[in-house]
Amino acid sequence: MGNAATTRFLAVLNETESNGASSGQRLCQACVRSLPVSEAAITLAMPGGRWEVLGAVGETAARFADAQAATGEGPGPDAHRFGTPIRVADFAQEAHSDRWPLLAQWNRVGVIGSECSIPLRLGAFRLGFLDLLGVESVLSDAVVYSEALQVAGVITTMLLTDLTALSDVRADGDGIALAPWGEPSASAREIHQAIGMIAVQLDCTVTAAYARLVGYTFTTERTLADVAADVVARRLRFPPDPEPGALRRHQPDPT
After folding, report:
1. Of 247 and 86, which is predicted with more confidence?
2. Containing H/E element for 42?
3. Considering the entire predicted model, what is its pTM?
C-alpha cells in the first residue's frame, strides 16, 4: 500500500513540468496531485534556528508556511521538534488556544481548516516538515494517513544527499547539505540576500538581522518575502539607532 503511494507520487512528479517552478514547488504540486489534499508546503530547518520555505502550492499554504517560518511556532515546527506528525482538525479553533500565541497574532495566516504537518526526518537527521492542508481524508482514513507518511518519507530521501560529508553535519541533525531538490526558491534566495544587507546596515550578526526582518514584517500586513524584496530593491533599509539597545526605526531608503 505504501509502495503504491510512493509509486504514484513519483509518477506524478515525473509528469510535472517545471515551467519556472522551483524544485520545492514541484514536490508540493506532486503532493496535491497524488494525495487527497488541497494545498501543500515544505519548510526546511536552517542553522541559527531559522526556517526556510522551500516551496508551496496554494495561497493559504504559502502564507501559513511563511507565518510558521517567521514565528517558529505552529504544527510544523512542533512536528519537527518532537519528530511526530501533528494533525489539526480545525486550525481556526486551535489558533484561539494558547498553544501557538505568536502564530495566532500573525494576521496573514487566514482560514486553514484541517491541517497535517509531517516531519521530514531520517533517523537522527531532521530536515524540516511537510504541511498538508485540506486533509479531512488524511485525518479520518488510516490508509490515506499512511500514504501521506510514505510521501513525506520519499521527499525526505530526495532532499538528502548521499551523506558522504557527515563530518559537516550539525550534532542536532539540522542544516545538513541537501541534494538538488533542496535548491532554494527565488524568494528564499531574496530573503537570504536581504538578511545579509540588513546585517551590514546594522553591523550585526545574521541571526540578529533575521530577527529584525521578522520583527518588522510582524508589524505589517505582508510576508517575509515581500519585505525582503523591498530590502533588496533598496526601497527599505534598517538604519542603526543612535542609542544602543533602543528599538530600531525602519525608514525607506531615500535613493
Report:
1. 86
2. strand 39-45
3. 0.78
